[in-house]
């Protein structure tokens, strides 16, 4: 799924990803959604060496699944989490790092622009009531279980 040939003469990448200002229903601080299509296209065009596939912990609990993903150094509004069918996708765009590429750095020992991880969910995972939170560099996703197999529609997940 993530294997795309390296394109040598790729077009210049936009310097930031647009937000969809009318799509957030976060109860509290307003956090707009990233534009999903633009993020997917930008990841597809990006040199695969610039994309990090973060570490994941998956815990099966009695009534749910708990997934923890380590994504340090990004803000909550830079996260894109969605389910399509039985695949959970977690992406992050570090716009600060993309824009810092335009500056002259004396020393840069680490850098990450994109995080991208796809997790195959079991048949009994129900994406209808998924919740996600981001704290201290870790995304925690809680996915309830269903008594029977579910056909999950495409669902965007708000990160609290």
- Taken as a percent bin, the fraction of beta residues is 25-35%
- Classified by CATH, the class is Mainly Beta
Order of strands in the sheet with most strands:
3-8-7-6-11
Q: Total number of β-strand segments?
A: 11
Please, what is the oligomeric state? single chain
Biggest sheet record: 5 strands, mixed
| Shape summary | elongated
Helical segment count: 2
CATH architecture: Sandwich
Low-confidence stretches: 1-15, 19-26
Order of helices and strands: EEHEEEEEHEEEE
Ends distance: 28 Å
CA gyration radius, whole angstroms: 16 Å
Helical percent range? 10-25%
Q: Looking at CATH, which topology would you report?
A: Immunoglobulin-like
Q: Overall pLDDT, averaged?
A: 75
Number of domains: 1
Coarse structural class: mainly beta
Structure description:
By secondary structure, this protein is mainly β. It has a single domain (24-101, 108-157), classed as Immunoglobulin-like (Sandwich). It is built from 2 helices and 11 strands. The chain starts with 18 loop residues before the first strand and ends with a strand.
Q: What's the structural blueprint in terms of helices and strands?
A:
Elements: E1 19-20, E2 33-34, H1 36-45, E3 51-52, E4 56-60, E5 64-70, E6 79-84, E7 87-93, H2 95-100, E8 114-120, E9 131-135, E10 138-144, E11 155-157
Parallel strand pairs: 3-8
Antiparallel strand pairs: 1-2, 4-5, 5-10, 6-7, 6-11, 7-8, 9-10
